Amino acid sequence: MEGAKLIQQYTKHWQLLRALEAMLYGIGAGVCIGLITQSMLWGILLLCVVAAMALFVIRPWQLSNEKSSRYIDDHLNTAEYSSSLLLTTPTGLSGLAQLQREKVTTRLTLEIKHVKPQTGLKKAMLTAGVLSFIGMLVSVVYTMGIASNMPNAEEEPLMVFQTTDSVAPVYESPVLLNQKVTIAYPAYTQIPTKSSSDLNVKVMEGTRLSWKLGFNQPLREVRLEGMGEKDVTMTSQKSGKQNEYVTQSIVPQASGYYNFRFADSLGAQYVSDLYTVEVIEDKAPTVEITDIPQFSSFDFEDDKVLNFTAGITDDFGIKTAFIIATVSKGSGESVKFREEKLAFDQKLVQGSKKARLSKNIRLDQLKMEMGDELYFYVEVQDQKTPKANSTRSETFFAVIKDTIRDGFGVEGTMGADLMPDYFRSQRQLIIDTEKLISERNQIPLQEFKSRSNELGFDQKALRLKYGKFMGDEADSGIAVTPDIEEADFDPDDPTASYRPDHDSENEHNLVEEHHDEHEHDDKEGEEDESGFEEYMHKHDNPEESTLFTASLRGKLRDAMAQMWDAELYLRLAEPDKSLPYQYKALKLIQEIKNSARIYVHRIGFDPPPIKEEKRLSGDLDEIDDFYKQQDMNYEISYGAMRESVAILEERLAQGASITAADRAVFAQAGKELAALAIEEPSKYLKSLQELSWLTEEKPQATVILQSVRQGLLRVLPAVDTDPVVRYQYRGALEKAFIQELKASDR
Amino acid sequence: MVLRPLVWENQVKGVGAILTQNYSERQLDSLKRLRKNLHLIAYEMDGLDQKQMDSITTAYILGDGMAPYDFWQLDNVKATYLPGNVLGGIKRLQYDSKVTLGDSLIVRGLYEKPLKGTQIVLEDSGGNGLDSLAIAKEEELIFEVGSTPKIAGTFVYTLITKDSLGEVVTRDPLPVQVNPSRVLKVVILNRFPTFETKYLKNFLAENGHQVLVRSQMTKDTYKFENFNRPQATLYNLTTDNLADFDLVILDGGSYANLSSSSRRALQAAVETQGLGVFIQLDESTLRGREVFGFRFKRNEEKEIRLPQWPKVNVSVGPVLFAENARLQPILEAENTLLSAYEQRGFGRVSTSMIVESYPLVLKGNLEQYAYIWSRILSAVSQKDIPIVRWETEDDMATPDVPFHFSLRTSMSQPTVINALGQPVALQQNVSLPDEWSGIVYPQEPGWETLKLAEDTTAVLRYYVATSTSWQGVKAYDWRQQNRLHFQDSKASAEMTKVQRLVSRLWFFIVFVFAMGLLWLLPRLEGN
C-alpha cells in the first residue's frame, strides 16, 4: 500500500472517531432528556444540538494528514520521525530519503494499527452512559409516581349498577363488560375523534357523543337518561360473546348529567351512577386594533392615509376578517351614508388561530371630500358551525376637516361660535395683570415693562374684538393675527353689512381710539354730526343697526372705554392703575353677556286662574274607582330542595323509611339541584347521585340520607330577607299589664 | 299499748359530706380535719340513700351540687353548699330555639377559662360549618355565633368546641324549630301614588305577601290594587275590616283625611287587636314637629350608612326622632335612630326617618332595601296566637329528668297528651287561672311532642338531649341553684327532735302503781 494513503486512511479514521465522540455526547444528552420529558422530539432536538456543539468544540475536520504523521512520529519509534516523508512525492527526494520512505512505508503498513489515535472516546462513552442511566432512573421514578397517583389512568373503572327494586333479584344479574363513549368534535376544531371509558366528559359545543355498553347477557332494554328531553333507547348489536348496546350520536345542548338504566331479560330494573357532560362554549374571536387613535383628522392638503394593524385571535381558527367602512357626507338632514366592505391588505389564512393583518385606507380612494367622515370597524368570524361567532372591534373615526365652516365668535352665549384662544379674555388679562404685579419685585424692570406692554397689546386686541360688534373698524393696522383679518374681511361675516365706513357719532369715549389711530375717521365723524341730522329721516343709521339694542350698545361702549384706560396704564407700565379699569370692563362685559342671553317663553298651556271654591267641585260621576288584581305566585327558591332537607331531617330523627311521596319530592329536588349545578356539574355530582338513589325504591343506608342532607344544606342559598309576623299571646296577665302601662303613660 | 304512742326527743347526729361532681379533695380534707366523724355520701345524680341521710343532721355539699329535683331530700338537714373546682368551657348559653324562617339564629354564650386557640364552631344539622370563632385571649369571653336557617322544620344544630389542634373537645346539640314564615296581610293607604309605595308594594307582593293598596285619585275615587288576594275595596276603616290585616301602612295625608269613625276604629284595632301601623312621613307630616306622638328634631345629615354595609348610602329625611322614653328602636345607624316604634296597647305604631328608600332599589341595593323593610315591618306587625302558648323552663330536656312545661290558654279545662296519646296531669295556677303547668319525664333522646287533646295543631315540640350534653352549662346552673337554695338553711340544729316510741316499761310502772293504789286504797279506807 502506498504510504500517503496509509496516512490519509489513518487521518480519516481519526476524524471519524472524533466525530463519533461528539455524537456520543449528543446521544447521551438526547437519551437523558428524551427519557425525562417522555418526548422523542425533545430527545432528538437535544441530540442534534449537543452533538453539533460537541463537533464544534472537537473540530474533527481540522485533523490533517500532517498532524497525523506528526502524531505517528511521536508515538511510533519505528517511524523514526520520517512518516512525513510518505506525504511527499518520491521524485523530488534524495536517495537516502527515498530509502527511508520505503522503509517507513513497510513498517507503517504493519505497525500503524498499533498507534491508537488520541480521542476522548472513552470519556464520551462514559458520559453518554451516565446520562442515559440518569434519564432512565428519572423516568422510571416519574412514571412510578404517576402510576401510584393515578392508578389505571387509561381504563376507568366500569360503572356500578344498582337495582331499583327494593328486593334484589336472586339470580345472577347482568354484568357490564365494557363501556365506551365516543366523542366526535366538530370538524372545524380539527380535534380527532376520541374514545374513552371515562364517562364524565368535557366537550366542545356541537360535539357528537355516542355510547357503547357491552354486557354478558342479552337485556330487555337499555336506556340512556338525561340527555335531552326524552330518554334514548340504545339499540342492540351482537358482537362475539358480548351483547353490545349503542346509542345514536347525540349532540348535548348544555351541561348536565346522564345515567343508564336497563332491564334484564326478566324485567328487573338497574340504574347506573350519574355522569356529567360539561359543554364548553367556543369563544368568540378577539380583535384589537393598535397604532391608530380613535379619532384622526386630516387637512385637505394632507396625505390622507390611515394605516393600522389588527391583531386577531380565536381559540379554534378564524374564518373571515374584514373592515366595514361607512362614509358620511353632509350634515343635518342632508346627511348621506355609504357603506363599504373592505378586505385587509394581506390574505387571511383560514383556520389560523392568530393573525396580524394590516390595512392601508386611502381616504381619497373612498371618494371622501372635505367635511366627510369615515367610520370603520373590523369584523371577525370564527369557523364555528352552524352559526359562527363574530366579533366587532371598536369603531374608529377619520375626518377631513372642512375649513370653510371654521369661524369664530365672541362668546358662546352670544349666539356665535367659539372664541379663538389667541384672544385673552378680560378675566385672563386681569389674572395676568395681577400676576405681573405680584412678580414685580422679582423680575427686571425691563421685563416688567415689556410684559406690561404685551398685556396692553392683548387688551387692545380684545377691545378691537368687541369693537367689531360695535361697528368699529377693526382694521386698525395692528395685525392681531392673520385669521382675524381674514375673518374681518370674510364676506360671510354677519356684521359685514352693518359695518359703517366711518363712525357716525363722536362720543367722548370713542374719541381716544380715533385720536389714537383713526384720526382721519374723526373728521368724517364730525362731518356726520352736522346740523342736518335732526332733520333727516334716518332709516339706516349704521350705529343703530349693530347687533345689539341701544342700551347694550351703551354698555359695550362703556366697556370699551374702560378697556381703553386699562390699556393706557398697561402701556405706561402701571398695571396697578390699570386693574380697576379692567375690573370695570369685566363687569360690563358680564352684564352684556347676560343681557344677550335669549330667554324663550315656554310654550305650554297657561291655565286661567280658578276660583278656590270651584276647586275639586267638578262632576266626577263618570270617574270610577280603578281596580287591579294580581297574583305574584310567590314560591320560595329551591322549594323542593328545602322540603327534601326537612323530610330527611324528620326521617332521620324518627328512623322512619322513605315514602313514595318523599320520593316525588326528592325527584323534584334532583331537578332543582341539577339546574343549580349546571355551572359546575362535577362539584355537585355526589349529592345528585345520592339524591337520585333516594328516588328509587331500594332502601338506602342512613349514611346516604345524612350525606344528602349535608350536601343539600351546603348548596342551598339563604332565604331572602322578608318581613315576618311576630306572635304574641294575649291572656289576662298581658291585658292587665298593657292596661297598667297605658294608665301610667298618662 | 296497741297504739304505741310516740314522743319527741332531742338527738345528736353526725355530719355528712355529700360528694357531687367535680368536688375538691382539698375541701374534703379540711372538712375531715374539722369534723372527726364525717359521713361521706356519694351523690350519683339519682337521689341520696335515705338511710344515710337519717344519720346526719348537718350536710356539706361539695362540688357542682345536687340536681334541683333532689333538694327535697335535704329538707330536714342543715346543708351548706361549698362549690368545688370550676372547669373551663361554655357555662352559659342563650339562643332562640324558635325562629321564623328568614330570621337569623344567634347563639350567645359565656366561655369560662378558655385556652388560647380554642375554636367554637356552629354546625347545621347536616354537619356543614356555618360560623366559627377562635379565642385569642385567655379570659372569660362572651361569644356569639350565628346563621340564618334556610329551611323551615325542626333541626338540631351543633355547637362544637375544638382545641388549638382542631380536636373536638365538646359537641353539644342546639335544637331549633324554624317556623315557616307567614304571609303578611298589609293594607297601604296613600293620598296619591308615590314611588316609595310603589316599590314597597312590589317588594311585599313579590315576597308573596297579601297587599291591598288604596291610592286616592280624586275626591272619593280610589285606585285599589290587590296583590296575592282577591279583589276587594276598603273605604271606611272599621274594626271588622281591619281585623283582616296585620299591618296598616299609611301616609300622613291619608291619616289626616280619615273620618273620625275610621280613626277610632284604627285606634281600637291597634290597642286591642294588636294591629301594626307604619306611618310614611311626608311633607305635610314633617312640617309639624309632632306627628302621632312622635316628636322630631331637625336633621342636617342627608345620608347615612348602615353598619353592615358601610359603602351604601341611605338617604334620610329632614327630621330625626327626638328623645322619647317610649320609643323602641328598630333600626339604628351611626348613633342615629332611623326607625322606631311605640307600643300602643297591644299594637305598635312606627315610623322611619328613611323617607325615601326606593333609590336603593334603583341603584341595585336590593339586599339593603329588603333588610330595612324586613326589620321595620317585622317589628311592627304582630298578631295574637290563637289558642295556646307553650312555655318551657329549659330549651331542652334530659332523659329521666323532670321537664317542666306550662301553657297559657283561654280554654277552661285543657288536656295535654303526649306522643302516645296518654294524658299529662296539669296543675292550674291559682292566681293566673289561664296558666297550667305540668311535668313530663322523657325517656329517649330525640324530639318529643306534647299536644292539646282539644286542638291537635297546638303542639309543643321539645328536644331531649343526651344526659352528657351541655355539661358545663348544667354544672354552672346547678352551682347557682345550690348556692341559692342552701344559703339560708335552717338554724343550726346539732340536736334534732326525733320521734321515739314510749317505752312499755313506763306503762307497766303506771300499771303496777295503779294496781298497788287499787290494792292499798281499800286497806287504808278499811282501817
Outline of the structure:
The complex is a heterodimer of chains A (746) and B (527). Chain A has 746 residues and is an alpha+beta fold.
Q: Notable features of this structure?
A:
heterodimer; A: 746 residues; alpha+beta; Coagulation Factor XIII, Chain A, domain 1; 5 domains; 18% strand; flat; B: 527 residues; alpha/beta; Rossmann fold; Immunoglobulin-like; five-stranded mixed β-sheet
Describe this structure in words.
The complex is a heterodimer of chains A (746) and B (527). Chain A is α+β, with helices and mostly antiparallel strands and 746 residues long. Chain A has five domains: 3-137, no CATH class; 161-280, Coagulation Factor XIII, Chain A, domain 1; 286-405, Immunoglobulin-like (Sandwich), CATH 2.60.40; 416-524 and 543-596, no CATH class; 639-715. Chain A is built from 17 helices and 23 strands. In chain A, strands 1, 4, 6, 7, 10, 11 and 12 form a seven-stranded mixed β-sheet that branches. In chain A, α1 runs antiparallel to α2 (40-58), α1 crosses α3 (65-75) and α1 (3-37) runs parallel beside α5 (121-149). The N and C termini of chain A lie far apart (142 Å). Mean pLDDT of chain A is 77; it is low at 147-154, 406-421, 474-491 and 495-530. Chain B has 527 residues and is an alpha/beta fold. Chain B has four domains: 6-86 and 475-501, Rossmann fold (3-Layer(aba) Sandwich), CATH 3.40.50; 98-180, Immunoglobulins (Immunoglobulin-like), CATH 2.60.40; 185-380, Class I glutamine amidotransferase (GATase) domain (Rossmann fold, 3-Layer(aba) Sandwich), CATH 3.40.50.880; 399-464, Immunoglobulin-like, CATH 2.60.40. Chain B contains eleven helices and 37 strands. In chain B, the strands form nine sheets. Chain B has an eight-stranded mixed β-sheet. Chain B starts with 5 loop residues before the first strand and ends with a helix. The mean pLDDT of chain B is 85. Classes of the chains: A alpha+beta (746), B alpha/beta (527). Chains A and B meet through β22, α13, α16, β23 and α17 of A and β12, α3, β16, α9 and β27 of B.
